[in-house]
């Protein structure tokens, strides 16, 4: 296997539209890297440039010790799994799996051995004599995965491979793919993976690290816990996490050494060492707090926002409580065992941020100024 490096990689189309803006990314050998972001952020374009299906217009892509800018896709040592599986409809599963090895002129004994090995790993032995039209979505996806795995490539590329599956199948395939990655690593043949998705659940549960993209720029690259706990900017903070982070613009001042945030006529004194980490001199900032880091308290409680409940969502293990705060709406996630069932729409409640989990963002740049140095 090999590592992967992108250096100042750009993509500009003939009409002058710049899709990718000089991105830099290092992916280690055996790492599972997820590219995630909203539609149009250029994550699939980036993957296709790595694969050689899109030409780059600037920068350098290196797989292992080789610059691959000018190499054809078949010469790059990659295998790609597509969203639509791309199985040959007239070939049975066995032939779909082995076709690449046949084209490469591999001996029949090697082809049979590798086909049997991959079929066992993915538990598709009973499917080998079926045509693609006889497969379910999950079975077809496993065959597509097997066709990539059988090549023993330098890098595996996945382009939203689970988006056509229902929720239950997506969950099981997430586990299957990550288990396969761990198995290969434990057997001493680590698989370098670049996986594209718009689904943050896939990103957070599958990736060793995640690259969050927006409009052809990389916003942050980090492990899932860091993205959740220490988002570099308000875009990452709002994109990662469900329900998404609550935001409200506040005026910012200091009362002695303690920063005070005011949203309209409501005021929060920020404690727990946050004052020492703040790196902004702006008088207006954006406060961010995750729904899981708000506590419901009586209306009027000190250091809590008071709002009117507008909606309640019972989710089984937790309840989402929506409350109107100033001109916006906050959502608070309450574990079911802690939920006060007497609450109803129209009630006034306090929403108290857990001080150590408050984030403060620069209004202009969006950068998280509460992380400190």
From TrEMBL:
Keywords: ATP-binding, Hydrolase, Nucleotide-binding, Transport. Its EC number is 3.6.3.19. One of its GO terms (cellular component) is maltose transport complex. It is an enzyme of class 3 (hydrolase). InterPro entries: AAA+_ATPase, ABC_transporter-like_ATP-bd, ABC_transporter-like_CS, ABC_transpr_MalK-like, ABC_transpr_MalK/UgpC-like, Mo/tungstate-bd_C_term_dom, NA-bd_OB-fold, P-loop_NTPase. The keyword Repeat does not apply. PROSITE patterns: ABC_TRANSPORTER_1, ABC_TRANSPORTER_2. Residues 4-240 form the ABC transporter domain. GO terms for molecular function: ABC-type maltose transporter activity; ATP binding; ATP hydrolysis activity. The keyword Transport applies. Belongs to the ABC transporter superfamily. PANTHER family: MALTODEXTRIN IMPORT ATP-BINDING PROTEIN MSMX, MALTOSE_MALTODEXTRIN IMPORT ATP-BINDING PROTEIN MALK. This is Maltose/maltodextrin import ATP-binding protein MalK. It comes from Pelagimonas phthalicica. The gene is malK_6.
């Amino acid at each position: 296997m090999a590592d992967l490096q992108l250096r100042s990689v750009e993509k500009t189309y003939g009409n002058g539209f710049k899709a990718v803006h000089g991105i830099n990314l290092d992916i280690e050998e055996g790492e599972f890297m997820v590219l995630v972001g909203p539609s149009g952020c250029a994550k699939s374009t980036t993957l296709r440039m790595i694969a050689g299906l899109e030409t780059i217009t600037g920068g350098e892509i290196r797989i292992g010790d080789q610059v691959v800018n000018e190499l054809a896709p078949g010469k790059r040592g990659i295998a790609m799994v597509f969203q639509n599986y791309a199985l040959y409809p007239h070939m049975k599963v066995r032939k779909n799996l082995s076709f690449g090895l046949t084209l490469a002129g591999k001996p029949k004994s090697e082809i049979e051995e590798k086909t049997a090995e991959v079929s066992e790993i993915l538990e598709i032995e009973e499917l080998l004599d079926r045509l693609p039209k006889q497969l379910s979505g999950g079975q077809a996806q496993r065959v597509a995965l097997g066709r990539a795995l059988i090549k023993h490539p330098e890098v595996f590329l996945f382009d939203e491979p689970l988006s056509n599956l229902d929720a239950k199948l997506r969950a099981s395939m997430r586990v299957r793919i990550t288990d396969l990655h761990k198995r290969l690593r434990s057997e001493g043949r680590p698989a370098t993976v670049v996986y594209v998705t718009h689904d943050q659940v896939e990103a957070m549960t599958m990736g060793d690290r995640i690259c969050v993209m927006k409009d052809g720029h990389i916003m942050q690259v980090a492990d899932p816990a860091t993205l959740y706990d220490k988002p570099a900017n308000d875009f990452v903070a709002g994109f990662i996490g469900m329900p998404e982070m609550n935001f409200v613009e506040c005026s910012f001042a200091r009362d002695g050494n303690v920063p005070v945030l005011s949203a309209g006529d409501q005021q929060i004194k920020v404690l727990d060492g946050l004052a020492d980490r703040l790196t902004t001199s702006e008088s207006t900032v954006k406060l961010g707090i995750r729904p899981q880091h708000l506590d419901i308290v009586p209306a009027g409680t000190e250091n809590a926002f008071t709002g009117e409940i507008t909606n309640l969502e019972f989710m089984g293990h937790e309840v989402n409580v929506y409350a109107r705060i100033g001109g916006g709406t906050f959502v608070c996630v309450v574990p079911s065992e802690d939920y006060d069932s007497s609450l109803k729409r129209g009630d006034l409640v306090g929403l108290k941020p857990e001080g150590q989990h408050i984030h403060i963002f620069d209004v202009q740049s969006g950068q998280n100024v509460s992380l400190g140095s």
